[in-house]
């Protein structure tokens, strides 16, 4: 409704505002820019999809991975979902080497997720913990906060290794 009003008035179809001159057109263009910036800020965060670079938050040796394929969902992966990734940066003496194709569990996502109590959780970065084919973590420590939603997804071992549960 407001967008159609703004577009009609910017074309000069608004007879009520015609006498006010350029001040109204400046006001309307400012309002259009403000709504556009609000739209961009709300829709900036997306699913973890193909070619998304994620930070590795365990001591497996990998530093950064790039998502090859999310294993569930059409749009992409969210908190607690499993992905297949390629290691882009790795420590020289780690268990995981650069170029290896690994599985990982998303433990932090920049996209917000609603909780049962009505609150929402979102993080500043996208982070993953590398797991083996049986679903057990490769590393022995998990750094940073981990959401308790992983318990529903049957990743209890990651929660046990985490230093802080959010």
TrEMBL record:
Keywords: Ribonucleoprotein, Ribosomal protein, RNA-binding, rRNA-binding. InterPro entries: Ribosomal_uL14, Ribosomal_uL14_bac-type, Ribosomal_uL14_CS, Ribosomal_uL14_sf. One of its GO terms (cellular component) is mitochondrial large ribosomal subunit. SUPFAM superfamilies: Ribosomal protein L14 (SSF50193). It comes from the Eukaryota. HAMAP family: Ribosomal_uL14. NCBIfam families: rplN_bact (TIGR01067). Belongs to the universal ribosomal protein uL14 family. This is Ribosomal protein L14. The lineage of its organism: Eukaryota, Viridiplantae, Streptophyta, Embryophyta, Tracheophyta.
